[in-house]
């Protein structure tokens, strides 16, 4: 990719200081987004050791583009994890704006359970002890705890759930509920989240 195309065989002019490169950045970002989406889908279906060609074919880019952005497979795995964490966390404000507090909380917990279920393919890599993944647990907590705390506080303030739920405890509980059970993994997790919400509603508004 070039910064400025050639013009009629004339030498390409260098980009002047301060000249915007928005088109270049936008094109590169589209490639990164396509790679992260494709990698997440391939990892979920085939595991994190799936051939690179599966990812690049799904993303519609060349292998050179992938390695330019993610030189090591661990770079791609970590980026996919962060990308999916961000997508899940960023869903909370939209849910809070559209639904009443308890409903928004329930919907986000189901979204989080789905996130955990689809990340099982990444689990072995993320817990391998590879230093490339060392910052991911804190990234997980830093993104999810404030989001869940806000949803819990809003639902408790509205008198729709009890006010003593700890965000980290709840994240751990939902993560455990999302563990596979036979062939009904997602259905089981969603039913368990519904029961968990019933427990949060018990005693709502008391005291």
Helix content bin: 55-70%
Write the element-wise H/E pattern from the N-terminal end onward: HHHHHHHHH
Measured on Cα atoms, how large is the radius of gyration? 21 Å
The 3D shape can be described as elongated
Largest sheet: none
Specify the structural class.
Answer: mainly alpha
C-alpha termini separation: 64 Å
**SS elements, strand count:** 0
- Bin the strand percentage: under 5%
Mean pLDDT: 83
| Total DSSP helices | 9
Low-confidence stretches: 1-21
Summarize the structure.
This protein is an all-alpha fold. The protein has helices spanning 22-46, 52-59, 63-69, 73-98, 101-118, 120-126, 136-157, 167-177, 185-201. The chain is elongated and about 60 Å long.
List keywords for this structure.
disordered N terminus, 207 residues, 9 helices, mainly alpha, elongated, single chain
Q: Strands, helices and their partners?
A:
Elements: H1 22-46, H2 52-59, H3 63-69, H4 73-98, H5 101-118, H6 120-126, H7 136-157, H8 167-177, H9 185-201
